[in-house]
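INFO worker-7 received task bundle
INFO bundle size: 2
INFO processing item 0
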Amino acid sequence: MRHLCLVALVLLGSLVAATPALAAPHLSKSQSRVVSTLVNRFVNDLVLRRDLADGWTISGPDERGALTRKEWVSGRQLPVQQLAVVNNPRTAWYATWKTRSEIGLVVSLKTGHGANAVMYGEQMALQKLHGRWVVDGFYTDGIFRLGRGHSGSCVSSKCKVTGPADYAPSAGGGVATAKPRIGGRWGLAVLFGLLGLPVLALVGMGLVAHTRNRRAWAGYLASRSG
């Protein structure tokens, strides 16, 4: 298993080295500053729940959904999971794709320290509307528990990795928690891929079209966290 994991990491590293243009779409310095500021505002406003009114102003129509501004500011039905983020959002993102009016990002948000450290891999879609950039999609695509004592892939906090597939129905119609499908070493490989290999995130190119469906999973996580 160790050898397979190492081989996988080497192959993934080779892909990144061979396809730099695909792995990291170019953003100008001004664009990077705009993105950093927007990511920072969104995380502070909504993920940390510090300014819901400002969070409304920087969210696009898909992110707001059917919520009114009053409902949004009340905080009772927000589509964004609340997290006690400890890392700096300004430097915790990288772009995975872009067009003239859209930019896709992976944002890595860390909570806790030591044995309680958890990394949340967030997919974010930015859209330029009426001359300004807004966040028009945000959902959790993976949870990686960094402390020792975790293994496998399932919805339980005992597992190292939790992803959307772990919420899929099992053969018996329940939640797939009986047997972990990703071993501890493979979990580390996935984490390394998320944080250090942007080419893996190119699958996010379908994010805009599926934002509303994927956000339902993030809402489910938010309801579990209370």
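INFO item 0 finished
INFO processing item 1
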Amino acid sequence: MKTRLPCTFTRIQRCRGAIMLIDCMVYLAVFFVVTGLALSVFYRCWDGSRLVGRTADDISSAANAGERWREDVRQATTPLLVEDSTTGQLVTIATATGTIRYRFSNGAVWRQSGDNATWTSALSRVKSSRVTPDNRRRVIAWRWDVELQPRQKYPRTLPLFTFEAVPMAGNNP
């Protein structure tokens, strides 16, 4: 029959070592949980900042296209000609230097400067585009409503833009 020995100094050290190993494993588990949460938050912020950058690029390109359209409308010498078709809307602007055309098709707004010039993309990722006359008291203004395709599935704000311009000559009653 074995008798139990009283706890000696070396036996206490072994007991404390086992407790310290369990403590170390708990600390490692807590460390990995906190690190996992931190990485999750980091990548969520990373994706958010990339989305903000892309959205800022979309806003900038829409504003630049709108300002270019407004400048073209200001140079018009005759009233704008707007034609609707099954493929999209075609807007013809006659200026002193030539004819400028805008058309909406294939999810983009295209611009042609001159009769035989090539079509260049004025604005991409467009969901809808509509140019309409806006009759005022003494002048006819033109309104361009553009909706871009959102980058998110459920956007917080819709990417809608409205630009207005008045030709300098040729449309005063």
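INFO item 1 finished
INFO post-check item 1: The chain has one helix and eight strands.
INFO post-check item 1: The mean pLDDT is 88.
INFO worker-7 idle
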